[in-house]
Amino acid sequence: MTTRENVGSWLEGGPGGDQGARGARLGLPAQGPGSAAGVGRRIVALVVDWTVCLAISATFFPADETATFLVRADSIVTLAVFALENLLLVGLLGFTLGHRLLGLRVRTAGYAPGGTPVSDDARAPGLVRGFVRTALLCLVIPAVVWDADGRGLHDRLAGTAIVRR
Q: pTM of the predicted model, to two decimals?
């Protein structure tokens, strides 16, 4: 017989305290440094990154000289600058400008062959993971589909996670 407590624990992500916490299956702490980043911080970091890329695009590759500053940026060039920023900065440093300003970083996350979570070596994910993550991020849809650990599909397929510094 199903009790109210059983249904409640299932809806909250599973039984047992931190076991249902976002990122717990990846071995991430429930709170503090190294925990899964919240959606609010991630969105603000994205806005910061996009604004910087928009400013670069408007300055160096204006599509309309007569428009106001940020409106004159070419959208394809802005996306290309955004992709290049994400590929290089995330792949080599583990964070973008927005991530850094908001106290976030991208780390390798997933499961070892035995099914145990990969430990955090505090290194950047690398250019291959950065490329996969960036390509999927630029498609938008994978970035807005999240799993139970709070990772977008782009992070899940790249084997990464955004965590707090």
A: 0.82
